[in-house]
Design goal:
Number of helices: 13
Radius of gyration: 26 Å
CATH architecture of one domain: Orthogonal Bundle
Shape: globular
Length: 352
């Protein structure tokens, strides 16, 4: 014990040496201003990168949709339509123009918020998006918040007890969660809780603005498979990051100085693991966004995923383009926000 006391760095203002001690001295205004400028430049770089990335993603989306077998004309006229009839419909829809002319025309309208009209229903795609997006956002937000509140504490618990039976049990259960697909869990939950026990409804979705309690009651079954699958990933990633953080010299020094274990875990180790946690939450958000394609279809929810699947089934070219573009923009925004937060939390990433 005496040897530890001799070799361990002393505390400065309650922090281990080398850990940005809080000395109580006023911060140098010049240093604070310089740090703010660095953060501002970092955020500006990320915002400038967002624009070409969004355009590139839009181009790939447009290209992929164009090479889908069949097309809107076939969907309207049927597989037995003659080439002459197909050509007439394609001309009416503007699909006979050169590829890049179509792309830049679509991109120009999309920038102004005009995503065109659905080939199937004739409704503006933006109106369909406005109606469906709140459903998907609600599903994803509830899934993320519940997963973070459940999985992060369990991941920290597993890291603190690494190698013990309780930690091994949690890892085994989370591994099972990774192995079981969301759609299988969804069907299992429907059979068990909706059909057999009758605890939850199988179908229906009242809007939150119309019936808040009914809305939450109907959203339970759809969101549970997303929470279970997401928790399995977050638990493992947070546990691995926390094991490394708890074994670092920084936290060992804090323990040697007699700092309470709870403070060591949450103030020092968890702070060190924060960049990993943020990246995991970003991946979780993107994964849940993708999971809505299946979940909304299974539970017949009027969200973006279900609307997109229906559009693909009838080859509604404009609807597919519009919804996929919205998905891409949301994914890019999530990455942008996480990059900015990571840059603020961890200055080492600002030059990336």
């Amino acid at each position: 014990m005496h040897a530890i006391e001799k070799t361990a760095p002393r505390l400065v203002g309650g922090e281990p040496a080398g850990a940005a001690p809080e000395t109580g001295q006023p911060e140098d205004p010049a240093e604070s201003k310089g740090s703010s400028r660095k953060i501002g430049r970092f955020v500006l770089r990320r915002l400038l990168l967002f624009i070409p990335t969004a355009i590139g993603a839009g181009f790939l989306t447009f290209l992929l949709v164009k090479i889908i077998p069949g097309g809107p004309a076939y969907a309207r006229l049927g597989e037995d339509a003659t080439p002459q009839a197909i050509a007439v419909v394609e001309k009416q829809l503007g699909l006979d123009r050169p590829f890049f002319e179509q792309f830049f025309s679509w991109l120009g309208r999309a920038v102004t918020g005009d995503l065109g009209e659905s080939f199937q229903t004739g409704q503006p795609v933006m109106d369909l998006v406005k109606n469906a997006l709140p459903v998907t956002i609600e599903l994803v937000l509830i899934g993320i918040v519940a997963t973070v509140l459940i999985a992060i504490p369990i991941g920290v618990f597993t890291a603190k007890r690494a190698g013990r039976p309780s930690a091994n049990f949690v890892k085994s259960v989370s591994g099972l969660g990774l192995a079981v697909p969301d759609f299988f869990l969804a069907l299992l939950l429907i059979d068990l809780f909706a059909v057999w026990l009758g605890w939850f409804p199988r179908l229906g979705y009242p809007r939150f603005t119309e019936d808040p309690l009914g809305n939450l009651y109907h959203i339970v079954l759809p969101v549970v498979p997303m929470i279970l699958g997401g928790s399995a990933i977050v638990i493992r990633q947070v546990s691995a990051a926390m094991i490394d953080a708890l074994a670092s010299d920084h936290t060992r020094t804090a323990r040697a100085m007699g700092i309470p274990e709870r403070v060591v875990v949450w103030k020092y180790a968890f702070r060190a693991a924060m960049p990993t946690v943020l990246n995991v939450v970003a991946l979780l958000a993107l994964g849940m966004l993708g999971a809505t394609l299946i979940i909304e279809k299974i539970f017949v929810l009027p969200g973006m995923g279900g609307t997109l699947v229906n559009g693909i089934a009838v080859r509604d070219y404009t609807l597919i383009l519009g919804i996929v573009l919205i998905y891409v923009v949301i994914a890019l925004l999530v990455n942008l926000i996480v990059d900015i937060i990571s840059g603020i939390v961890n200055p080492a990433t600002r030059g990336a």
